[in-house]
Amino acid sequence: MSRDKTQGISFFEKYLTVWVLLCMAVGILIGKFLPGIPAVLEKFQYAGQNLPIAVLIWIMIFPMMMKIDFQSIKNVGKHPSGILIYSGSSWLIKPFLMFGLATLFFKVIFQAFIPGNLAQDFVTGAVLLGVAPCTAMVFVWSLLTKGDTAHTLVQVSIYDILILVLFVPLA
Description:
Elements: H1 11-14, H2 16-33, H3 36-42, E1 45-46, E2 49-50, H4 51-66, H5 73-76, H6 81-109, H7 116-131, H8 135-144, H9 149-167
Antiparallel strand pairs: 1-2
């Protein structure tokens, strides 16, 4: 289903926040009132990865992957500024910004509610989330904003390679 750039956003896209909140609520309710379902889903593992989650992520990004003109990937290198800005901000700004914000909230503002060692773990987690966003969501947001799919694919690929090179040795 393709739509031109002049057409408005679809009903689903318009209420994406509502759908996300509803899915979160359903997940919480299932976990609370039907704990057998998550227990069964957790058994579907391969190489330490949860298969239902992998399938759902694939379903989420598959529509965008179908819209990529792989011939246009060659043209991304002609305009590298977007990739350079994204990569630079992701590795030179976001970790420090996340560290500052997390420290402010977890160690200062909510200091009375969070023990010190747990606050440090939260800060560490926030920094990791800041530098390693969900690449599937990058595809979704690019689709919703009518971004250049080839550019997004190259950008996410480079970013994922950097994550592998920079994070895997730490793990």
